[in-house]
Amino acid sequence: AIQSTKVTTVREAVDLEITTTYHPSIQMTVKALVINKIGGVYPCRQVDATTWNHIPSVGLADPTFNQPGRVQVLFSTDFHYEIIRSGVLRGKSSESVAQESVLGWLIGGGSANVPSNSITCNNLTTTIDDTFQKFWDIEHLPTEQVLSQEEQDCENH
Question: Counting C-beta atoms within 10 Å of the first and last residue's C-beta, which end of the chain has fewer, N or C?
């Protein structure tokens, strides 16, 4: 996600030529929008992936996926679906999944045990006048007396 970013105006676009050592014969051109900041540091701390037997040791799109680093490129889902292949490697439910792609094996998920530094703050501002007005509106509800038919006839007479 585009972290801690308010409304961003895109002033530049570039064409990225993408090649990979995983499939050296494949070259792709992607139009990219240039923004100041994509996100923070991911993962937020070093991940010990040595026990993840399902993650291949060679052919990773990012061999340093388990080390904290800045996000440099954020691809669209359109591009993602262009590059993925059928291979999927799964470990335990708490571990990341490896997805084969033309760039190499992509590692994702498994972040359930990663601590979050996010704070949610909800703020409601109201004036004391509004609060008192609502109080008095409730306190001074109109009181309608319910009369029997006989009482109503007397009142009407």
Answer: C
Q: Please tell me the distance from the alpha carbon of residue 99 to that of residue 97, in angstroms, as a whole number.
A: 6
Residues of the chain with pLDDT under 70: 1-8, 111-144
Helix (H, G, I), strand (E, B) or coil at 78: helix
Contacts of 78 (CB under 8 A, 6+ apart): none
* Tokens of residue 2, six digits: 């585009």
State if pTM tops 0.90: no
